[in-house]
Amino acid sequence: MKDIRNYSLLKHNTFGIDASCKRFLEYASVNEAKKLVLQLTDDDSPILIIGEGSNLLLQGDYPGTVIHSAVRGIEVKPVENGYLLRCGSGEIFDDVVAYAVSHGYYGMENLSLIPGEVGASAVQNIGAYGAEAKDFIEEIEAVEIATGREVRFANSACEYSYRQSKFKHEWKEKFLITAVTYRLSNVFTPRLDYGNIRTKLAEKKIMQPTAEELRRTIIEIRQEKLPDPKVMGNAGSFFMNPIVDEEKYKQLRMQYPQIPSYQVTEHTYKIPAGWMIEQCGWKGKALGKAGVHDKQALVLVNRGGASGKDIITLCHTIQHDVEERFGIEINPEVNIR
């Protein structure tokens, strides 16, 4: 178990914010997680549990203790019509997707190249191109911080919805996730009707993709739209796509006939936040050292030397402009601490 004081978090946040924490703890097993929670005192508050830091914006030095999982390993169990993959919470999520596809465990292809770790996938309910982590999560194993006891949560207990779970609300900073089990299929059923997947496949003259071909295509699409955080600091999609009711949707269609949308339920619609940000003229623009990516307006970037407060100022300015023009409040997907 790692236990380091005055620890730099620069390599633990993809925005590239140079900040530190009072104490950094890292566990590599269930036993280490149980020992770790017994060592915590009031001096460790406030606690922040992180994954790869790909969905994190630090406003400055963190005044408390940061905890990270280094639990690794993938175990496979055949079940009816598929497989259960039990993965350590510190595994890189895309490595799990790559492993699954290469071994014929299907379903998560559309989640390819989403940054972050396995534990965070269960907290954030990560998603892309018509798929979400909740579609595959079978069970979550964790250690309760208050008691040190091992607990298990079924998918249904987590109250998953769009980019939401109980781990972001009632259970926030209350559990150290040690493993996540995903249920995958032994039959490949491609999901192609979201975004420009079919267009990209057609360009490659692929009509019926294999799982490997679909994964490579998703990766290419993401790489074309999203900057490499090693080159330009970012946390991927900064804002959640807002969901509006039918009345608001009809109003928007009257004002903006070209507005893209995705029907969520019979009476609700998802509006792409990136499109609205682009309509407000922010795509490719900057506010000091913080900016909006020139290929995807949903992505805020550190253009070099930006502080967390610089990114937050840009966030608030964009929120104001979108609400003023469209009457819609857009909220960050990123965890701001």
Helical coverage, percent range: 25-40%
Briefly note the structural class of the backbone. Answer: alpha+beta
So, CATH architecture of the largest domain? 2-Layer Sandwich
Helix-strand pattern:
EEHEEEEEHHEEEEEHHEEHEEHEEEHE
Characterization of this structure:
It is a single chain. This protein has a five-stranded antiparallel sheet with strand order 6-7-12-10-11. Strands 1-2-5-3 form a four-stranded mixed sheet. It has three domains: 2-69, Uridine Diphospho-n-acetylenolpyruvylglucosamine Reductase, domain 2 (2-Layer Sandwich), CATH 3.30.43; 74-185, Uridine Diphospho-n-acetylenolpyruvylglucosamine Reductase, domain 3 (2-Layer Sandwich); 233-336, Uridine Diphospho-n-acetylenolpyruvylglucosamine Reductase, domain 1, CATH 3.90.78. A hairpin with a 5-residue loop joins strand 10 and strand 11 (150-154). The chain contains eight helices and 20 strands. The model has no long low-confidence stretch (mean pLDDT 96). The radius of gyration is 20 Å and the shape is globular. The two termini are 24 Å apart. With 337 residues, the chain is of the alpha+beta class. 39% of the residues are buried. 26% of the residues lie in helices and 28% in strands. The longest helix is centred in the last third of the chain and has 19 residues, at 308-326.
